[in-house]
Amino acid sequence: MKKFQLKIEYILLIISLLNFCSTVSLKSMSQNNFINMENVLENINSIESGDLEDTFYQFTYFSRELKNQLKEIIRLKDYADENQKENLTEAADIFSTSIRKREQQLIFSYDAILYCSLILCFISGAVIFYKIVHQKNELLKIKIINEQQLQFSRNLHDGIAQDLAAVKIYLNKNETEKSFFYAEQALKDVRYLIDSMHAELSKDFVQLVKNNLENFETNFGIKTDLLIASSSLEKIDSRIHIELLRILQETLSNIARHSGASLVNVKITEVGRDLNLIIKDNGKGIDPENLYSHSDEKKHYGIKNIKARVDHIGGKVEFKNDGGCTIAICIENIIR
Length: 336
What we know:
336 residues, 11% strand, single chain, 5-stranded mixed sheet, rod-shaped, alpha+beta
């Protein structure tokens, strides 16, 4: 059985709330007691000496000064004659003034405890909120890493494994030139996959796109051209940035393996509140009619994965053949 462990921030939050509630209750009780004591002092002549001691016991117990003042009031009250009434009134006024000072000190102490409780409550709540947000971010990172690992393994299977299998076949046939070609292709795929896995997601999105295109050019020798016509990219949620980056990486990987292209154009534009990502190559293109057929499922797995990612962020994707392959992605109402 898993043991229940209450974290320190929750303990502090509970303590601060209990302390706040109990202090409010005690402050209210004290204020009521002071009101009652004021009434007692106003009618001091009609109250028995024993009742006076009981009423003010909680204050005189810790204060010798108040205790002596109360004894003086009782002495004057018990033995007072008409000539000493003024002395009794004066002693009662002095005692009342001392009680008011004690009331102010006590209320100030209660208020200090209340403020400390509120501060402790705020700190505990802030720590809890931070940990919840941090945990969600960690889960998101883990999810992204898992998706990257899954995609990496798929790319290994669909691209590099096939290239290595071809190397083995042609080596058995003693066809050195073809073996070298597929070995070189597998090496380029590995380098590009490693580069794409090391993208620092904390960087600026535009810079990440540029870095990916530079790595793509270096590893595959295919030229790229980037056009960005949007001033609102930084306002878009970082999760959208991550998905767009993965879509770009997936598309570039497919272009390198299957298109035979020599140039890739990437455009990121905004139209109203819509964001568009267009990736076009000058390769041999694809047949859109066969993209979703079961017979071509393995062949077009990368395209299907792109569509799944676009659907995940609420976008639309269109595949076109126009002197190569064009992938047009639109995410509506994403710019606020």
